[in-house]
Amino acid sequence: QYSTVFGRVWLSVVFVFRILVFVVAIQQVWSDEQKDFICNTAQPGCNNVCYDKFFPISHIRLWALQIIFVTCPSLMVVAHVKYREMKDEKYTHVHKGKHMYANPGKKRGGL
Predict the structure, then answer these.
(1) Which residue of 6, 55, 73, 75 is most buried, as measured by CB atoms within 10 A?
(2) For the chain, what percent of residues have pLDDT higher than 70?
(3) With bands split at pLDDT 50, 70 and 90, how would you rate the model's confidence at 35?
(4) What predicted TM-score, i.e. pTM, was given to this entire model?
(5) CA distances from residue 90 to 56, 86, 93, 98 in whole angstroms, order as listed
């Protein structure tokens, strides 16, 4: 309702593709990232430090972060619209049918 058809289809395809790749491929490929990693010293904690130096970004966490960044803007818009609708509904109930906003469906695309 608040975006174009192309925008909704694009967001859905990107979201489904990212979730599908995350569930099917990434967790199987990088499930135990440090299993076969060998450090050249025997100091305690060396494996974690060496691994962090060798691979500074975890691929699983990167894809999870990308999924969050892709979905957050649309979820924030939906939450904002729901908040405005509830606020207008309360105002209409208290003021006997008078709306808080002049024309809530037409003003700035309904947002």
Answers:
(1) 55
(2) 78
(3) low
(4) 0.55
(5) 50, 6, 5, 10
The encoded tokens of residue 33 equal 């990232």
- Cα separation, 73 vs 71, whole angstroms: 6
% residues pLDDT > 90 (the chain): 3
Tokens of 65: 């972060």
> Where in the sequence is the domain holding 69, given as residue range(s)?
1-30+55-104
Looking at the domain assignment, is residue 44 inside a domain?
A: no
| Within a domain: 91 | yes
Our count of domains for the chain comes to: 1
Q: Region 59-77: what's the mean pLDDT? A: 83
Which distant-in-sequence residues (6+ apart) come within 8 Å of 30 by Cβ? 58, 59, 60
State the DSSP string of 49-76: HHHHHH--S-HHHHHHHHHHHHHHHHHH
Q: Does residue 42 lie in a domain region?
A: no
Question: Are residues 45 and 34 in contact, defined by beta-carbon separation less than 8 angstroms?
Answer: no
Cβ atoms 62, 33 nearer than 8 A: no
